[in-house]
Write a structure and sequence with these properties.
By secondary structure, this protein is of the alpha/beta class. 29% of the residues lie in helices and 19% in strands. The protein has an eight-stranded parallel beta barrel with strand order 1-2-4-5-6-7-8-9, surrounded by five helices. It has one domain: TIM Barrel, CATH 3.20.20. It has eight helices and nine strands. This is GP-PDE domain-containing protein. GO terms for molecular function: phosphoric diester hydrolase activity. InterPro entries: GP_PDE_dom (IPR030395), PLC-like_Pdiesterase_TIM-brl (IPR017946).
């Protein structure tokens, strides 16, 4: 039986080309024919979803402080480091992506206390539905609590897993029955932690399996050949080259 070539997921808007999370990066990802784009959402102090990876601003933006303690108007006027404009709101990103065919993997971040943002789900769903994108979204988080109740509202949900970085996450193999009960469809594992045994356990339990964040030609070549469903990368253009070669060879579908 032929192996399905993994989907290529542009991480944080194709960060290898433009400043991460800039509107230009999302436009480039959508125009470049990638399967999916992954990005992160925080909630501002005035209750608005904003697209940014880090909890604190200083490494990726020309500002200091915690992102959840800032107002949206201040953040959307804050330049990103490396160029590409200012920090975008979720509405701005969805406006740029809605007319493309690219699927969206939206990660719900947690606040400074590592708890779900109060009101995040309602504001996120309102933005998604405003743009008619519900059927193109997978909502994800490291924290199952951030996704509680979303399956009942018709969303596909995914868990990001990396116990080496986040030791508070339970052992994955022991956690699988509970995750299945909660309605998770996808499990994305930090690539260093996805062993053959763990992959087999995930497959046996009926989950879609992905890896994040894979960079460099050698690693991308390896992971694009594995029996997994998606590969998240800061170098989606390189990953797409390997995927195209697989499809051309006829070894995959």
């Amino acid at each position: 039986m032929p192996m399905i070539a993994p989907s290529v997921v542009a991480h944080r808007g194709g960060a290898c080309v433009h400043a991460e999370n800039s509107l230009m990066a999302f436009e480039w990802s959508a125009a470049s024919g990638f399967c999916e784009v992954e990005f992160d959402v925080h909630l501002t102090s005035d209750g608005e979803p904003v697209v940014f990876h880090d909890l604190r601003l200083h490494q990726a933006a020309e500002a200091e402080g915690v992102i959840g303690e800032k107002r949206l108007a201040d953040l959307t006027a804050t330049p990103l480091r490396g160029g590409g404009g200012a920090i975008p709101s979720l509405d701005q990103v969805l406006t740029r992506l809605r007319d493309s065919s690219i699927r969206l993997r939206i990660e719900l971040k947690t606040d400074v206390a590592q708890k779900p943002y109060e009101g995040m789900q309602a504001r996120l769903i309102a933005a998604i539905d405003k743009h008619g994108l519900r059927d193109r979204c997978v909502l994800s988080s490291f924290s199952p609590a951030a996704l509680d109740g979303l399956v009942e509202q018709g969303f596909s949900i995914a868990l990001w897993y990396a116990r080496e970085q986040k030791p508070w996450q339970p052992d994955l193999n022991q956690w699988l029955p509970e995750l299945k009960e909660m309605g998770f469809r996808d499990i994305a594992v930090q690539f260093k932690e996805l062993t053959a045994e763990r992959m087999a356990a995930l497959r046996e339990a009926g989950f879609n399996v992905g890896v994040w964040t894979v960079n460099g030609p050698a690693r991308l070549d390896y992971w694009m050949r594995q029996p997994i469903d998606f590969v998240v990368s800061d170098q989606p253009d390189v990953a797409a080259t390997f995927r195209a070669a697989q499809l051309k060879s006829g070894a995959t579908t």
